[in-house]
Amino acid sequence: MIRALLATTAVAVACGAGLIAQGGRPASPSGTAATQILGKYDTSGAEPVYRGGKWIEITYGRPIKRGRDLFGGKDESYGKTVNPDAPVWRAGANNSTQLKNEAPIVVNGKTIAPGTYTMFIDLKPNAWTLIISNWKAAARFDPSNDAQKTGEVFGAYGYSPEKDVVRAPMTVGTLPFSVDQLTWSFTDMTDAGGRMTIMWDRTVASVSFRVAQ
Amino acid sequence: MTTHRGIAFVLVVAAAAALAAQESRPASPNGTAAVQVLGKFVRPAGRGAPTLGGATYQGGKWIEIGYGRPLKRGRDLWGSGANYGKDALVGTPIWRAGANVSTRLKTEVPLVINTKTVAPGEYSLFIDLKENNWTFVVSTWPAATRYDPNNKEALWGSYFYTPDRDLLRAPMKLETLPHSVEQLTWGFIDMTDEGGAMAIWWDRQMASVPFRIM
């Protein structure tokens, strides 16, 4: 236990170092992907205005490839570059990637009620699984955090599957170009649904969702 | 000119209404694309980020694009024929390639785009939209923080853009994506310490322009 705690502390110190790399600017700036559904265009004015829409947002830290081989490891070492020491990948940087939805959505048959969730990806070669979880995102790493007591995790440190809301297999593909900075996007959106898509380096992975009726 | 400004004003009021649409949350949230070049991975004693193999990346120079991120929201973004680009331009001479304030490039290193050197500094980016022919424009027009038709020193978006402050123009490579990207996205692709490309994605359209690092 003490050994684990020491290891965690070392990781925390390391995280702190990585977080504030260049003159106080985070090495992995934070970002957002946002989409709006179920609104209507009000055409009564000079220009149509979209009103009454519900937001769906993904907020995340955006790590930069910086020349590294991100997903090249084989077998047991697969995914270890981006996720060396947490049970699953935070699919971002720094604090946990979060999904905030104002409308209920359905992912892999499971309804996600409006709210705020954490998202993780279980990384296996050619088999990525998106996890939507009820773990709360801690604002900063605290090595003395007892996740079972606080219900919070920083990134994926302390993640365990019992708070999973849903797991969904992702469609994994290869891009004809390399994206330098991890990017979440909403793709193929209609009012019926769309996809949550992550791109980094030449890998693109996505999971479909529909808007609950 | 008065009529031109009058039309622009109506458009701006409409744009402001769109901006403040949803419970004061901007309809087109802000975003950035960032990369770092010319740094070195160093391994400090017992410290460093676990995701960098215990190392930290030091001495890197940032290149950043800051922009407003409009959403497709079911619209046909580009149109065709005589109407090509009309909705994106909203009556302005050139596309701001973003939303709200002008899209800004900030570079800490000198870049070379289409043989022209871009010294470290801040610039406005625009795209001249022609069907199957997009031109990337780096301009020294400063960015205004709000729309003001009397401001002769800075631009808000691409309203009243003029080409006299163009630093360079470069043809963009146009490609079609296999999926539709809902929210306008700028990104850096194919990066090495020698250079890469700046890319923009929206709907199924991708456009990119290569650059070198000096």
Describe this structure in words.
The complex is a heterodimer of chains A (213) and B (214). Chain A has helices at 2-19, 147-150; strands at 30-37, 40-42, 49-51, 54-61, 97-101, 105-107, 110-112, 115-124, 127-133, 136-137, 152-153, 164-169, 171-190, 193-211. Chain A has one domain (27-211). Chain A is globular and about 55 Å long. Chain A is mostly beta strands and 213 residues long. In chain A, helix 2 (147-150) links the parallel strand 10 (136-137) and strand 11 (152-153). Chain B has one domain (29-213). With 214 residues, chain B is mainly β. Helix content of chain B is 10%, strand content 44%. Chain B has a six-stranded antiparallel sheet with strand order 1-4-5-8-9-10, with no helix packed on it. In chain B, strands 7-6-12-11 form a four-stranded antiparallel sheet, with no helix packed on it. The interface between A and B is large, with 61 and 61 residues.
Top keywords for this entry?
heterodimer, A: 213 residues, mainly beta, 4-stranded antiparallel β-sheet, 2 helices, 14 strands, B: 214 residues, 6-stranded antiparallel β-sheet, 12 strands, globular
Q: How would the blueprint of this fold be written?
A:
The complex is a heterodimer of chains A (213) and B (214).
Chain A: H1 2-19, E1 30-37, E2 40-42, E3 49-51, E4 54-61, E5 97-101, E6 105-107, E7 110-112, E8 115-124, E9 127-133, E10 136-137, H2 147-150, E11 152-153, E12 164-169, E13 171-190, E14 193-211
Parallel strand pairs in A: 10-11
Antiparallel strand pairs in A: 1-4, 2-3, 4-5, 5-8, 6-7, 6-14, 8-9, 9-12, 13-14
Chain B: H1 2-19, E1 30-37, E2 40-42, E3 56-58, E4 61-68, H2 86-89, E5 103-107, E6 111-113, E7 116-118, E8 121-130, E9 133-139, E10 166-171, E11 173-192, E12 195-213
